[in-house]
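Worked example

This section walks through a single chain of length 259. The input is the sequence exactly as stored; nothing has been trimmed or padded.
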Amino acid sequence: MALNWVMLDSNQRFVPLPQERILYTSPSRTTLSLQTPNSYPGKEPFAISSSSGKAYVTNQRVVYLPTAPTAHLQSFSAPILNLQDTHVDAPFFGANSWTGILRPVSGGNIPAHHAYVKISMTFKEGGAFEFASTYERIKETITQAVEVARESGGQQGPNLSDINLEQLPAYEEVGTTVSSAPPPPLQQPSPISPRATSHAPLRESGTVLSSEADQNRKQPAAPSSNQQYPPPDEPPPGYEEVQQHSIADDLEQRLRNSS
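Given that input, the structure is written out below as tokens.
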């Protein structure tokens, strides 16, 4: 973060850095507030603000130009990765604001004893969510570029002015590979003809009971009454004893009748 570091042209418009491109410009009634989050004993608090101006998001930094510059605030800029915990506050009443925590850069006209400074921008004419979404998208892209540079052996990280953000490849973890082959097609189940199951009863579990014809095929066929069998070679068990009792009973019956 730096104060009064932005180069301006004769029309009080900021001069872009090499390969810098403006991605978002807010309406002119955007406020800026910078202040220390806490007061420390023996350290003078820091606070500066502007009631109207324009906020910019570029592919390298966040820039703010007040509508009425003063000796203390002519411009403000902060590298993309020097902001943390940024979010949009949307109150029930009043304009939305974008807040975060800034890490000042060395020699940026911020007292050296302040390690962090709170930033707040209020968008009186709208644009807070557009500003925030543009910033988050660029921050994610630059963060991926820094990680890729570190994994490839870079000690100080990439030069942000040389990064082509539009052609930056997607970040992948080391040791992982992504297959470009499409997944195998799923096999479709064969359709069942309605005639095959129209008369088949169902159990409560949903399974189809076999038809009567199928059950008959599984059971042994009953013997036919007209079927001829060969005569047995010997009498069945107990046949002679039954015959003796039958003859004795018949003889006793005849004696009774004759008397």
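What to look for: The helical segments are 128-151, 194-197, 212-218, 239-258.
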